[in-house]
């Protein structure tokens, strides 16, 4: 494969042990050494759950988005930037990756407004849900991350951003990754999670959907696509519509899939295509 621009989303569920993180570090090093420009966005759901539990703060997910009170936001920012990002950058650097830890706050890379969710109710009406301090991205300034990645550094980004008044927001890492992929005009948007891809009958891995087009997705939300898979698929959709060439979901608990993907293309994971 020729050298490409990659946006890799590393989900919290695929970083649950140090060995997995080391294998991802080794893969990033290989991809970078072969000339790929890489930006990595990480999640941290399980780490946030633990921190909120310890702080005795309740949190609920609605359509894969964590309702975030101001108190929860403080813990989430500490966890994503101070713990998950710092630990990933440390491990990656130990394995020769030129990792630079950032969030959307640095150089105002990511600006947000408060995200509103529209829920469709069974009686056919819609209800707006207040998610609290959850951000919807309004603008991205890719200057900093592009400068770094073009110079062979790998920006490692936590999904925190601020609004125009400087108020910080929690951003779903899939939403964040899809928008960054579009902003840097990535050739590949690769989402690493803890399942093989999108299953038609979750949790049966034999029901994996190998390829699916944008046109086929809308009817699957709420039935086939649930929970954490909602923002993941939506972010692939968003990235493709905004010009990203390829979007794929792979199993990050099998880090070897990342290199394998570039050798075999569509034979592993779920590829979301623009056209059927
Ligand atoms: N149709 C589906 N196929 C596969 N996974 C699904 C599906 N629907 C919901 N999921 C859930 O989505 C999860 C992945 O999203 P998430 O937990 O947010 O992971 P990550 O931390 O990688 O972002 C899977 O572990 C699974 O529980
Ligand atoms: C608003 C929202 O849902 N924010 C996410 C941010 C982290 C994340 O998305 O992590 P994963 O990629 O591991 O799921 C959260 O609070 O869990």
TrEMBL record:
Residues the record lists as binding substrate: 44-45, 66, 170
InterPro entries in alphabetical order: AceGlu_kinase-like_sf, AcgluKinase_fam, ArgB, Asp/Glu/Uridylate_kinase, Glu/AcGlu_kinase
An MF annotation (GO) of this entry: acetylglutamate kinase activity
Enzyme category, top tier: transferase
SUPFAM superfamilies noted in UniProt: Carbamate kinase-like
Residue stretches making up the Aspartate/glutamate/uridylate kinase domain: 6-251
Family to which this protein belongs: Belongs to the acetylglutamate kinase family. ArgB subfamily.
Chief location bin: cytoplasm
Chain's role: Catalyzes the ATP-dependent phosphorylation of N-acetyl-L-glutamate.
Protein name in the entry: Acetylglutamate kinase
Gene from which this protein is expressed: argB
Pathway recorded for this protein: Amino-acid biosynthesis; L-arginine biosynthesis; N(2)-acetyl-L-ornithine from L-glutamate: step 2/4
Keywords: Amino-acid biosynthesis, Arginine biosynthesis, ATP-binding, Cytoplasm, Kinase, Nucleotide-binding, Transferase
Keyword Cytoplasm recorded: yes
Reaction equation(s) it catalyzes: N-acetyl-L-glutamate + ATP = N-acetyl-L-glutamyl 5-phosphate + ADP
Site (Transition state stabilizer): residue numbering on this chain: 9, 232
Enzyme Commission numbers on file: 2.7.2.8
Subcellular localization, as worded in the UniProt entry: Cytoplasm
Keyword Amino-acid biosynthesis attached: yes
PANTHER family xref list: N-ACETYLGLUTAMATE SYNTHASE, N-ACETYLGLUTAMATE SYNTHASE, MITOCHONDRIAL
Pfam families membership: AA_kinase
Gene3D superfamilies linked: Acetylglutamate kinase-like
